[in-house]
């Protein structure tokens, strides 16, 4: 794992109210090093290389703690396994309907939609969720070969 990402994980945990454990740092490092929004099992496989005695329950508990503290976020898309994101900032996800890959989309202008919803409905808007589905370039290329 990259030294910079490891330091970023340490800094994030130190600046939070979360107790720092080597396993928790390793789980957060795995999230920060991944661009694929991994499942808990994928994180378990990665962290298990460094901590062979770690249990899946420990990984799940650490993911839960990181999400509860705002250091990560759990992504749930329909009936599929939850995926995890080490970037807790407000952003959106584009999901491939063929292979399931997930790519981040940062688009701050959608906050204007929340303001419009408040103005037109009188609701106090707390948040919104947007998922965009399509076929990634790699899957599209595979479709073209078929």
Our estimate of the beta-strand percent is: 5-15%
Through-space gap between termini:
37 Å
Strand order of the largest sheet: 4-3-5
Q: Give the topology string: H per helix, E per strand.
A: HHHHEEEEHEH
Strand tally, please?
Answer: 5
The CATH superfamily name of the largest domain is Winged helix-like DNA-binding domain superfamily/Winged helix DNA-binding domain
**Amount of helix:** 40-55%
State the name of the first-level CATH class of the largest domain. Answer: Mainly Alpha
Computed CA radius of gyration, to the nearest angstrom: 18 Å
CATH topology of the largest domain: Arc Repressor Mutant, subunit A
- Quick one: overall form? flat
Give the arrangement of secondary structure elements:
Layout: H1 3-14, H2 22-33, H3 40-50, H4 56-68, E1 73-75, E2 83-85, E3 92-96, E4 102-105, H5 111-121, E5 131-134, H6 137-145
Parallel strand pairs: 3-5
Antiparallel strand pairs: 1-2, 3-4
Organism: Virgibacillus xinjiangensis
Protein name: Fur family transcriptional regulator
Keywords: DNA-binding, Repressor, Transcription, Transcription regulation, Zinc
Would you write up a description of this structure?
The protein is α+β, with helices and mostly antiparallel strands. The protein has 2 domains: 3-85, Arc Repressor Mutant, subunit A, CATH 1.10.10.10; 92-145, Ferric-uptake regulator, C-terminal dimerisarion domain (Dna Ligase, domain 1). It is built from 6 helices and 5 strands. The protein has helices at 3-14, 22-33, 40-50, 56-68, 111-121, 137-145, and strands at residues 73-75, 83-85, 92-96, 102-105, 131-134. Helix 1 (3-14) crosses helix 2.
